[in-house]
Amino acid sequence: MPGRLPRPHRDDVLIAVGGLLGGLLLWTLGIAPRVPSDDLVLWPQRWAALVPLAVTAACEPLRRTRPRAGLLVGTAALVVDTVTLGSIVTIVLYTDLMYAAVLYGSPAAARRIPWITGLLTVIGGVVPAALWRDPQGLLIGVGIGVVALAPAATGWVVRDHRDAAEAARLRAEQTALLAEMDRVQAVTAERARMARELHDLVAGHLSAIAIHSTAALSLDEPGTSKRALSVIRENSVDGLAEMRRLIGILRETDDAPAATPTLDGLAALVDGARANGLDVRLDADPGRVPVPVGLAAYRIVQESLTNALKHAARGRVHVVLRQADGALRVRVSSPYADADEPRAPGSGAGLTGMRERAALLGGSFDAGPDGALWTVRAALPVTEGDPE
């Protein structure tokens, strides 16, 4: 229901009940901080001290849910207690209300209450001593300090430590969350990298195997079938070697063979494409480039030749590499064939992988029909690094 008071904490109810019973016990025993002859005692009747005791105890269940209201009502009850015979338990319960108001109250109240109680402590000690011209007047300020300032300052210290611990916990959770995000991103990036490597290493060999096995099955010519089977065997052996090399990287063994091709291997790559039936012309003058740039260029050429083997029409494939304007420029052109079915099935990940390689280096990539040709273009910035 709207406006309904929140349920008090179980411990606060126990404090209230315990305080009330303790005050009743002292009242029954006749223990009180003042006597009827004191000048401030306006209600000397013994029962009058029970009223502020009961009110202060009733404020205890509000110490967490309504700390400000509990403190205001408790302050009024304490004022009434000073004109009766009084109860020590009423004072003790009030100090707890003061402590709770700072600890559980609003940040503004937590800042103001210690200053207000400190000011009242000073005024309560200096003014009576000055008016009465008696140093014992300072004891009033001491009493205010014990009843109000001390619990307020204690509440402020505890709240400050609690807030610092909460901030440290939140920072730890945030750090753990950021670490988990970094881990997930690292795993995702590594999976994407391995997917590109696996595709680039194996797709070309498997495409050649698929194309030549189709030729061997469709043509009833022993010579042609023998040549196709030779190409199939060569690509199978090469593909197996590439897979072993990739597995070696995944295992990260010390004796694993290096699996980072360089632009020096472009000639061998082109020779392999020619053996698979492509008419390839290589025009490469890349100069000295960093290792990541050389690897990306090699993979882009490799994937472009694989796509040409699967999709291109008959004709010459041109591979050009030049370094100009601070970038290594790669261009692979092949005769464009708008066929319904490729000569070998593909995953569709080739163009995505090439585009990702260029983007990781801050370069550009595009591929598409260019008149009668299908052209792949990539510009890979040549940054500072270890050249090949």
What features would you describe in this structure?
Helix content is 62%, strand content 11%. The protein is built from 10 helices and 5 strands; from the N terminus they run H-H-H-H-H-H-H-H-E-H-E-E-H-E-E. It starts with 9 loop residues before the first helix and ends in a 7-residue tail after the last strand. A hairpin with a 2-residue loop joins strand 2 (316-324) and strand 3. It folds into 2 domains: 10-174, no CATH class; 261-388, Histidine kinase-like ATPase, C-terminal domain (Heat Shock Protein 90, 2-Layer Sandwich), CATH 3.30.565.10. The longest helix is centred in the middle third of the chain and has 81 residues, at 138-218. Strands 1-2-3-5-4 form a 5-stranded mixed beta sheet, with helices on one face. The protein has helices at 10-29, 50-59, 67-81, 88-104, 107-132, 138-218, 222-251, 266-275, 291-311, 350-360; strands spanning 279-285, 316-324, 327-335, 364-370, 373-381. The chain is α+β, with helices and mostly antiparallel strands. Helix 1 runs antiparallel to helix 2 (50-59), helix 1 (10-29) packs antiparallel against helix 4 (88-104) and helix 6 crosses helix 9.
Q: What is the overall pLDDT average?
A: 81
Order of helices and strands: HHHHHHHHEHEEHEE
Instruction: Count up the helices.
Output: 10
Low-confidence regions? none
Number of domains: 2
How would you characterize the largest beta sheet?
5 strands, mixed
Estimate the strand proportion. Answer: 5-15%
Strand line-up in the sheet with most strands: 1-2-3-5-4
* Distance from first to last alpha carbon: 75 Å
Number of strands: 5
How does the helix and strand content classify structurally?
A: alpha+beta
Percent helix, as a range, is 55-70%
The shape, in one word, is rod-shaped
Radius of gyration: 44 Å
